[in-house]
Every structure is written in structure tokens, then in C-alpha cells.
Amino acid sequence: MTSGEQRKREGISTAVINSDTKYRIRFNNRLAELVERGETFTSEDITSVVGIPNDKIVGALMNAAATGGYIKRLAYVPAERGNQHAAMISRWMGTSKHMERVLLADDLPIEQRVSRWFCTVCGQPASLEPSAGLDPTIGMGKCLVCKKPSTFRYTPPRE
Q1: Do 124 and 146 form a contact (C-beta atoms < 8 A)?
Q2: DSSP SS3 for 93
Q3: Which terminus of the chain, N or C, has less C-beta within 10 A?
Q4: Mean pLDDT in each 10-residue stretch from start to end of the chain (159 residues)?
Q5: In Å, what is the CA distance from 117 to each residue of 30, 88, 141, 149, 155?
Q6: Distance CA 130, CA 147 (A)
Q7: What pLDDT shows up at residue 119?
């Protein structure tokens, strides 16, 4: 790998790590949906649903999916967004590698959430009940969404 390729990978990793966790999850969930359908798509098919906080993160997330083996480039096509002035963007297709989806707590009513324990770093529900401390409403563990050691706060069901 050349130093230029290495710097590109480092830049993509940095952009992905520093991006908004909820945006990244919504982006990847939409990408997984398009891959499951078996259709070809561009990044615009994703951003038309989840929005665009900045163009760099969109490219970084698409490159991360390609590098991870989830999608493969088929062709270059003109962009349809007006502010892109028909710039060439990639048309993609999913591979046979399965993409996991993550449900965001914000996207579900509290009654439908799998867990009532929520990470205090990213706000997402815990997939496993964290180990409880002295306070029964606070637990400790590693968040599977933001990948950080976190405290988790219990939210009781609404009456």
C-alpha cells in the first residue's frame, strides 16, 4: 500500500469516527436497506432519505462500506443534485456480505424499545442489561453502538 493510499484510509477512518453516531447509523441502515433490495444505487439514494451533514462524511461512509466488502462500484454516473453540477458519482451494488442494522432509540416509541437502559454517551439502548452499581438506575458496560465504556441510565416505563 502506498503512502497516499494509507493517508486516504486514515482520513476515511478519522471522518467516520468523528461523525455523528446517529447520522452514521441512519446512513448505514438506509444503505443496508438498499443492499437487501438487490438494486443498484448511488449515495444520493441514501442522502435523499437521511440528509447530508457534509459531503465528506457521505464519501467516507460509502468508502468504508466498499472497503468492508459490503458494496462494489459498478459505474460512474452524473449526480442528480443540482449543487453537484452533474459531477460523476459512483453507482453501487451490494455484495453477498450481510450488513447489520441498528435500531435508534429516537426512531421508536419508548414502549417498543428493546431495552430501557440507555448509554449516557450516545443515547442508544443497551443491547444487554448492564451490570448494576450501587444505584439501581445506573449501570456500567461497553456500548455496542458508540463502542465506548459507558454508564447506562434506566428509564422506567411510562404509566
Answers
A1: yes
A2: strand
A3: C
A4: 79 74 84 89 93 83 85 91 77 81 55 61 65 59 73 63
A5: 25, 44, 11, 14, 6
A6: 14
A7: 75
pLDDT at res. 97: 75
The whole-number pLDDT of residue 118 equals 73
Domain at 3-94, CATH from 1.10.10, 1.20.1250, 2.60.40, 1.10.3470: 1.10.10
Whether the model pTM is above 0.90: no
DSSP-derived secondary structure letter, 67:
H
Domain positions in the chain: 3-94, 105-154
Report the 3 state secondary structure along 116-157. CEEECCCCCECCCCCEECCCCCEEEEECCCCCCEEEEEECCC
- Please tell me what DSSP assigns to residue 111: G
Residue 55: the pLDDT is: 64
Strand partners, 149: 142
Q: Is 18 exposed, middle or buried (0-12, 13-18, 19+ CB in 10 A)?
A: exposed
Q: How far apart are CA 28 and CA 21, in angstroms?
A: 11
CB of 92 closer than 8 Å to CB of 71: yes
